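Reviewer comment 2.1 asked that we show a complete input and output for one of the modelled complexes. We chose the orotidine-5'-monophosphate case, as it is the one discussed in the main text.
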Amino acid sequence: MTAHAFLEYALQRDVLRFGEFTLKSGRTSPYFFNAGLFNRGSDLARLGEFYAQAIVDSGIDFDLIFGPAYKGIPLAAAVAEALYRDHDMDRPWAFNRKEAKDHGEGGNIVGAPLEGRVLIVDDVITAGTAIRESVDIIRAAGASPVGVAIALDREERGAGDRSAIQEVESDLGMQVVRVARLTDLVTLLEQTGRAPEHLDALRAYRAEYGV
Ligand code: OMP
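Response of the prediction step:
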């Protein structure tokens, strides 16, 4: 199963860790996924493969790949490359600057012109705050965000009782493509009998913030 292969890889590279972490949402989590630790050339190549496979399997229709600054930029580049290399899909890609540029070509978007149906590539969705910022940037440029591809769906509640993913799908009308979900991590630990103490903490966390 691709999700399990991906999680095994993330555990092996220490990208996925157990402990006590404070999230952007203020929640205290027993695990954290730090995509920035995919910091070797081989990591980018494999990461691109995992995302590209999930994107193709989802059947999502899109014109352009967008990587939100900063962490989405190398992800979007790796995905654009892998879609071309492995699936013969040659798509334009772009990213935003966080700072406005007042010389040279100007503008906050770098790469291909931001137009058409846009697929955002990002690392993780927890409460769904980061993704909303990307949607605003894409709409402001006159393009249509149609989906978001992420490595890990933490399957948590958003602002209300629904999951953050459900909110993104119904409120923003976007399709969410994920390589792996929290459920996959729980089953992986269950099936392999690994890290029983972490498994209990994951279940307790899911009972509190999951849907
Ligand atoms: P939301 O904006 O709440 O959806 O959180 C997503 C962002 O949180 C990601 O883009 C990361 O910057 C960060 N994050 C992780 O990178 N890994 C995690 O396991 C959890 C978070 C987080 O803070 O929720």
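The chain is about 45% helix and 25% strand. We note this here for comparison with the apo prediction described in Section 3.2.
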